[in-house]
Amino acid sequence: MRRMNQGSLRLRVITAVIVATFATVASVRLFVTATDRDTAPYSVTHQLDAVAGRIDREYVDEPAVVRAAPEPVVITLQIDRTAPVLDYLEEAGLDRDEAQRWASFFAKTSASRSLQQGHSLTLYKDPEDGTLRELKYNLDDRIAVREQTYGEGVIRASQDLIKYVTRPVAVAFQLNGDFSRAAALNDLPQPIIVTLQDAFRDRHPLSALPRGSDVKLIYQERVSRDGTSHTVTGLEAAQIHFGDKTLTAFAFRDENGLSHLYDADGLVLGPQALRFPLKFQYISSGFSFHRYHPILHEYRPHVGVDLAAQYGTPVKAIGDGRLESAGWCGELGRCVRIQHEGGMVSIYGHLSTITAGLTPGCAVRVGEVIGRVGTSGLSTGPHLHFAMEKNGQFVNPMTQSLGENHHVSPRMRSVFERFKQEYMAAFDRMPEFGSHFMVGHGASTALARGADGPGVAASSGVSPASATAPGARPAAMRVVAVGAPGAP
Fold it and tell me: In this structure, is the dihedral angle defined by the CA atoms of residues 210, 212, 218 and 223, taken in order, positive or negative?
């Protein structure tokens, strides 16, 4: 029995040794295999093969490559004739159905089916197949109509505000003939030419400038961000030198908030008052304290003059001032009253319309259109009743004036001198004549700030930019050539 137990124990030991030996060998083989696998190149494809049973590579999807759409071909043109938008779209290559679809959205958005002469139209076309992606049309200088396609006949149309940047421009040229020809050769904007003519007509007419005169100008312009809309906002400074004489002009806002052009001595330039506020045909009734009224059939004062003119004729402010009132004035119908310096008030009655935006206290510039001739109130026909008050008493507008040109006020003199010196330094730094320049980012704060400032009419020709609040001082200017006619 003891021998059997010993034999059984020996058998179990042998079995255990054999199992342990096999386990050790298996472990070694697994370790060696794993080591070989770790040290061998092992790609993603090998892993896929192992998992999917050697799937052929052709069944493995390649990653998709996303390409950006090519930039569109941009075509910008000025409309040369007023015509239906449908005609222009067909001329641009759209088929009839597609053109009608775009034209329909345009009509709904702009309340018009036509493009107006002189306005800007921009087309954005696909460079590969020539299809129209987008169009933009400037309704005026504030609003643009924009249409965009999203494919499958889906078009979105909207009205967008036109965004502008204001930039100063410097021009320098020498007269080789008359001023008008030199101005045209150097792309001088017409509003700037008119402003210069008004400023210097009593000092030295531009048409009489001699050959060889040196001209340097700084003016401001507004340009839409896409470059399709471009307007001049006014003259900043001018210097015209010939022989031993120099004409200068500097835009500056006085203590009343109104911008004027002044010479180097601080004397205001250009017309400061109009003799009459409109182009009239004849005087139908004069100033009198005892006139027979054609409607009331009684004698009563007529403290003004009646200037007969066609219905709708523009009526202009005779001088700078501030609006006292604009609205219905009883017998005078629609009426505008403007306060001027020296206790003067100008009165404009029987208007058919009053210019929008005129509110009590707002600044009004000489020559600004304030309304149009009508026959409102107690009137027998279209005419302007023009009257003037001085210190609250009516005076005859045929013999009374608003006063002579004035200087920069003593309180503002030091500020004006700083502005003048900065402009003179800018003129000295200008490159050779015969070039057109863009004032760069280092331009004066007076030029870069204050565009569309309060109290300056767009038609005045004098930019509000340099006429900043009292105490503002322009920084140094940097002038950069932009390659206009005659530039190197």
Answer: positive
